[in-house]
């Protein structure tokens, strides 16, 4: 049986992590019926779509237009509010099959197809919404795959950020996101989907465990994993994880560490 988590860990630590492969491995962990040929088929589909784009010779805006015509108009890739209610919207192999997904997964499709065709493309993790950019980041052309690849102006980006945060657009928000940043954001989305669904705590658990396999991740994830273990009835493992995390934070936040140790003690008491 393939150890998808081990493959995920190895890919995440590669010199140049493959974004599509990492996203497909998330899907393999999520869906026990997925096989290696399924992942190969998804990669082949990305190659096929890229083959329908002319290679090179475009400026930034032209690339955005070409992708919108191919993926948005011809193949119908886009998103709706209903897609936020489905776990499949965060799994790349399902997004390729359904042609529906969250903004970040649709952006992954746009990026991977465009990259294969030679486009200067990258993802932009704006607050509350993920989009793609083409060309020099200093003079980028933006597109919104969730809206079928609609071209975005600078004002569109400013309004989007203001609507999500109430704050102005900062130049740092237009910095291209790296593959591991994108993967962590996808895993956070999956956890957010599972959080209000106690019956899907297993989904939240594997999502946080994959995030912990990334070479750089928030230390807080260890505590999140501990809470999920306790929620799922694994009180001893959860308590041990809380105490390990308390030891990490004790030097900088002794009061927080004491609180966490008390919670670990309470988790052990649930065995009585």
TrEMBL record:
Residues 45-188 form the Protein SirB1 N-terminal domain. It comes from the Bacteria. PANTHER family: F-BOX ONLY PROTEIN 21, SI:DKEY-261L7.2. Pfam families: TPR_9, Transglut_core2. Transmembrane segments: none annotated. InterPro entries: SirB1_N. This is Tetratricopeptide repeat protein. Belongs to the UPF0162 family.
């Amino acid at each position: 049986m393939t150890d998808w988590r081990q493959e995920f860990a190895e890919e995440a630590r590669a010199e140049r992590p493959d974004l599509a492969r990492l996203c497909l491995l998330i899907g393999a962990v999520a869906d026990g019926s997925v096989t290696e040929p399924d992942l190969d088929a998804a990669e082949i589909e990305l190659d096929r779509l890229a083959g329908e784009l002319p290679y090179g010779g475009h400026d930034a805006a032209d690339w955005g237009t070409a992708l919108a015509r191919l993926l948005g108009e011809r193949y119908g890739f886009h998103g709706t509010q209903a897609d936020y209610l489905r776990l499949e919207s965060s799994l790349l192999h399902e997004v390729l099959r359904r042609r529906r997904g969250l903004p970040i997964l649709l952006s992954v499709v746009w990026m991977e197809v465009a990259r294969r065709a030679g486009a200067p493309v990258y993802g932009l993790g704006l607050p509350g919404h993920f989009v793609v950019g083409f060309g020099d980041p200093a003079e980028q052309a933006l597109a919104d795959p969730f809206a079928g690849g609609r071209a975005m102006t600078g004002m569109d980006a400013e309004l989007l950020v203001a609507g999500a945060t109430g704050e102005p657009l900062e130049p740092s928000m237009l910095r291209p996101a790296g593959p591991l940043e994108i993967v962590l954001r996808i895993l956070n989305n999956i956890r957010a989907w599972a959080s209000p669904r106690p019956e899907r705590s297993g989904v939240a658990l594997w999502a946080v465990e994959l995030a912990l396999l990334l070479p750089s991740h928030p230390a807080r994830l260890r505590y999140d994993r501990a809470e999920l273990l306790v929620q799922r009835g694994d009180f001893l493992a959860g308590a041990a994880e809380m105490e390990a995390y308390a030891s990490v934070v004790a030097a900088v936040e002794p009061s927080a560490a004491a609180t966490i140790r008390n919670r670990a003690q309470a988790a052990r008491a649930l065995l009585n």
